[in-house]
Structure formats: structure tokens, C-alpha cells
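Work Package 4 report. The design task specified in the project plan requires that, given a folded chain encoded as C-alpha cells, an amino acid be chosen for each position. We show below one input record used in the internal validation round.
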């Protein structure tokens, strides 16, 4: 539902008065969507979700500025957003910490190019393999524990994805990639796509990965989101590890990930300029100082 944040930000930047801002948020409600059926049925739409939210927010603010109106009760109304997306809506949660707590500051950068729910699984498996000095050939099977939300979102696709999106939302395939290739970055998934996700080593291990519901993690969700991993060796040892699905990434890792993602699209000078500009965003007078650096091949 980033469309609401985008509508609020656009309204602020456009200096809309209170009434028009309310209408912008109301109109944004008709843009709200973002179902996660792609985690089961596949497709590329996940890539488009953030852009759709941003565009919808700007469109809502511009329409409100032109006089378009909507229901002021779009959020809490009997047929509003809360009723549409929740079995037990809590309208008070919308204003908890309003003006003092900023959700934007809680945004986290993922260490791997996967669904965030896989971060803890990958961290746990890598920790096990490093701590116990085991190799892929030592592993008989891997058992992953998660809550019901994780079971649905990353445990249902299975070991044979057909698209990059499916691979990025597959516990089985992504953990196998981590163990066999030691990589879960953008280029690794594109390399798998070129092989039609039929890499022999990855597919063989993926078939020996099982995801189960962990009662303890289920009881603590959503307050705590983490994963457990048990690697069973061919010698019979059971090696246990766990990892949090969301963790703060050190600044140097954020910058390293950014450079990898733009490599081949932007020049090193552009990448460096973008990082420096963002680090000093409060001091730049015009946003063109940043957008001018985003031109491919400049």
C-alpha cells in the first residue's frame, strides 16, 4: 500500500491544503492493491508494484489538486481499505505514533536478491556451513523451520521454479543456490535463468530441502520474524542455525550491493556520484542534481 505514502509525499511537495490532501489519500485508496499471487502463480508483476504505487500516489495528488474528490472514510469506512484487507481491522493503529514515529526510517535493505523472508534462512545456512566447515557434498538434507506466513510465501513454490521471480521466492531453490554457488545476488539468478533453472547441482540439493511449520516461530509471529535451519550431514550430524528475516545492513554492504546492481548500466563515476549526492541530499537545491546522474551510459 505504498500508494498512500506516495500520495502523502506528493501532496506535501505540491503544498496541497488539508482538504485536497485528504482527497489525495482518498483517491489513492482506489489504487491500492499489490496481491502476492505471483509467489504461487509466477510472473514479473512483482517488479512493477513499487512503481505502480508511486505513480498512483502522484496521480491521486494531481487529481485532488484539480478538484477530484473521494470518500473521506476510505481507510476506516465499512467498505474501506481496512475492511477489504483485514479480517480484524484496527483503525487506531493508523495514528499510533503519528508525527513522532517515521516508518520510512525502518526501511531495510536486503542483503540478498530474494524475498525478505529468505534472508534469515540463507544467513543461517551460511553460518552453519562456515562454522562447521562442511561442503555441499557433506549435506544429506536440509530442514527449514518457519511461521505460516513464510510457509505460504516462500515454501510453496518448491525446488523447480520456472521464472526468476519464482526462484527468488523459493526456499528450496534459493538455499540450494547459496550452498552450491555461494551466491544469491542479481547476476546469480539471471545465470540460473539462462540454464532454465536446471543447474544440476542446485536442483539436486533443492530436492533434499524441506520446509516445516515451526510452532515456536508461529507463536511469535509477527512480533519476531526469523527462520531455523537444520543441516543433516551424511554422517548423521544435525547442525542447527537460525537467522532473522530482517536485519540492518552495514553501510559498506549497502554501497557494495548498489555498485553490483548498477554495474554495466551506469559508469563507476555515475555510481560514485549518486552515492555522494544521496549522502548529502539535505544540501542539494534541486533534485536534478540527482536525476541527471541516472541517465544510462552518460
Amino acid at each position: 500500500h505504498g500508494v498512500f505514502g506516495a500520495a502523502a509525499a506528493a501532496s506535501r511537495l505540491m503544498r496541497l491544503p488539508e482538504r485536497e490532501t485528504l482527497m489525495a489519500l482518498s483517491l489513492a485508496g482506489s489504487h491500492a492493491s499489490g496481491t502476492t499471487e505471483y509467489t504461487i502463480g509466477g510472473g514479473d508483476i512483482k517488479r512493477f508494484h513499487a512503481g505502480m504505487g508511486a505513480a498512483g500516489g502522484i496521480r491521486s495528488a494531481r487529481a485532488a489538486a484539480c478538484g477530484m474528490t473521494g470518500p473521506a472514510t476510505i481507510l476506516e469506512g465499512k467498505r474501506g481499505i481496512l475492511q477489504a484487507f483485514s479480517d480484524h481491522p484496527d483503525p487506531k493503529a493508523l495514528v499510533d505514533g503519528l508525527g513522532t514515529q517515521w516508518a520510512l526510517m525502518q526501511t531495510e535493505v536486503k542483503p540478498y536478491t530474494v524475498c525478505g523472508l529468505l534472508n534469515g534462512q540463507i544467513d543461517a545456512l551460511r553460518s552453519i556451513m562456515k562454522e562447521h566447515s562442511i561442503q555441499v557434498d557433506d549435506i544429506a538434507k536440509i530442514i527449514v523451520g518457519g511461521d505460516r506466513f513464510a510457509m505460504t510465501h516462500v515454501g510453496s513454490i518448491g525446488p523447480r521454479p520456472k521464472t526468476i521471480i519464482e526462484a527468488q521466492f523459493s526456499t528450496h531453490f534459493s538455499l540450494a543456490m547459496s550452498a552450491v554457488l555461494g551466491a544469491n545476488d542479481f547476476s546469480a539468478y539471471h545465470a540460473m535463468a539462462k540454464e532454465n533453472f536446471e543447474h544440476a547441482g542446485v536442483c539436486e540439493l533443492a530436492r533434499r530441502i524441506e520446509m516445516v511449520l515451526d510452532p515456536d516461530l508461529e507463536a511469535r509471529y509477527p512480533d519476531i520474524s526469523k527462520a531455523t535451519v537444520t543441516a543433516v550431514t551424511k554422517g548423521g550430524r544435525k547442525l542447527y542455525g537460525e537467522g532473522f528475516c530482517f536485519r540492518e545492513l552495514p553501510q559498506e554492504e549497502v554501497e557494495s550491493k548498489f555498485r553490483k546492481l548498477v554495474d554495466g548500466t551506469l559508469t563507476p563515476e555515475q555510481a560514485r556520484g549518486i552515492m555522494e549526492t544521496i549522502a548529502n541530499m539535505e544540501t542539494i537545491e534541486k533534485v536534478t542534481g540527482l536525476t541527471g546522474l541516472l541517465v544510462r551510459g552518460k
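The longest helix spans residues 46-65. Validation will be extended to a larger panel in the next phase.
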